[in-house]
Amino acid sequence: MLITFLDRLISVVIRYPYRVVFCSILPCLIFSSYLLRTPVDFSFLALMPTQDPIIQKFEVVGEELAINSQIILLLEGESEEELDSTVSKLLLVLQEHHDVKYAISTPPQKWFEDNIAWVSHDDDFQDLVRIGDIITNQKKWQDIQNRYTEIQTVQEGFRLLWVGLKQDPLDVDVNDVLANNAPFDRVEKVTMDVIKGTSIEGGYAGMAAIAAQDQRKTILAISKLTPLSLILVLMLLRLVEPRIIRLVTLAVPMVLSFFTTLGLTGLILGEINFVEAFFGMMIFGLGVDFGLHLLVRMREEYQGNTSFEEALRKTVLGAGPAIIAGAITTTGAFFIIGLAEDPTARHLGVSAGIGLLTCLILMFTLLPALWILLVKRVGGDDKLSEFQVPLIPQLAKSATQRPKIWISGFVVVAIVSTIG
Question: The sheet that has 100-105: what strands, in order across it?
Fold first, then answer.
């Protein structure tokens, strides 16, 4: 049944390559468009189990207290005067910044002294008013002295500023993050400009700041590593296929599969986090296997007087069942992982399952169609020699002639690895 299906499929591809290319690319573009409307959260907070009652309570409290958009600036220095001066400058600059909703600082010691009535309990304040003879509770008197000493020393060597952003630092455009022009980036830059030229050291902390910094590093890493992984995969494929144009035909299905996966995953799960983002490197490594098997088998079939169309048919019918069987088992395993409640496992399973399935479909439709069009355009007389991996024939021959030695060697390696 599978052979019959593949035979009919490849017949359609050979007969109508332009239609197959169009019908393969159009759905990918449609599904990829969902990525434009999908929220992107590349911070570690996106991996928190939102169904957990404790996490839900945390999110409610976070919204009520606006801590999701609050960042904390820690300033450290030896000079108290310089610390106070820097805080004053920062408050003036940040309170006028268009990305800042509010900026407040911890009050100085003088403020505590002037407002002691408002920051103390009633009983404690009454004792302070009648300080001296009337205080009979020595423990309370000691507590008051300790609290006053704490107020005097609590800010020595550092200051804290609470800065509220008008926009959630995670709810920003990815392009702004790549350009270092997100609200958090702009506020951080202004802050560092004020601190520059002083002996004060400072940096932002807090849940929102850490999440924004984490998201920025993740996006920058993805923007570099994803294309790099594709280039490395194609460079390795040069061992199999020396012609650049045929390597490009392999890259097209993988790239389309990557963006289709992001769009469909966003449509199903409602957001994209860094699990899907890093899946680009995974799909270039796993999905290329399908095309690689077809390419190697094509080199074997496209010898002698065989036409390209006939070699392509034999390639799909010969290697297709094994490729499909392996892809289905791997895809099924990932989809099972996607049923887990943990956000990391769910995003990994769904995105990997969709990605491999999409890549499998494109490798049996779009890739052969591109090969047909390539042969029609540049000709098919450049027969390639059968692909050989160095040392593999010798190793295979040795393993069949001395099986006991090889088995014993692997057993020893397994035992050593298990021990440690």
Answer: 100-105, 158-165, 70-76, 201-205
CA distance linking residue 157 with residue 364, whole number of Å: 67
What is the amino acid identity at position 376? K
Q: Quick check: 222 pLDDT over 90?
A: no
- Give yes or no for a contact between 37 and 209, defined as CB atoms under 8 angstroms apart: no
Residue 399 tokens, joined: 């393993």
Measure the CA–CA gap between 361 and 365, rounded to whole angstroms: 6
Q: How high is the pLDDT of residue 133?
A: 47
Average pLDDT, the chain: 80
Helix ranges, 305-342 (H): 308-337
- First-to-last alpha carbon distance for the chain, in angstroms, is 48
Closest C-alpha among 135, 117, 50, 142 to residue 343: 50
From residue 258, give the alpha-carbon distance in Å to each of 14, 178, 249, 265, 352. Answer: 26, 20, 15, 11, 10
Q: Is 131 left (phi over 0), alpha (psi -120 to 50) or beta?
A: beta
A 10 A CB-CB count for 147 gives: 15
* In contact, 350 and 335? CB cutoff 8 Å: yes
Task: Give 60-79 pLDDT, tens digit per residue.
Answer: 776 676 677 888 888 888 88
CA distance 149 to 146: 5
Q: What is the dihedral of CA 227, 231, 236, 238, to 10 degrees?
A: 150
In one letter, which amino acid is 95? Q
Q: Among residues of the chain, what percentage have pLDDT more than 70?
A: 79
Give the burial class of 47: count Cβ atoms within 10 A of its Cβ; 0-12 exposed, 13-18 middle, 19 or more buried.
middle
Q: φ, ψ for residue 330 (rounded to 5)?
A: -65, -45
pLDDT at 418: 85
Mean pLDDT within 409-415:
87
Here the tokens at position 131 are 């300080």
Asked if residue 161 lies in contact with residue 205, where contact means CB atoms within 8 angstroms, the answer is no
The predicted-structure confidence for 168-208, as pLDDT tens digits, reads as follows 776 676 677 777 788 888 899 999 999 988 888 888 887 77
| Alpha carbon distance 48, 156 (integer Å) | 37
Query: By C-alpha distance, which of 184, 187, 253, 251 is closest to 219?
Result: 184
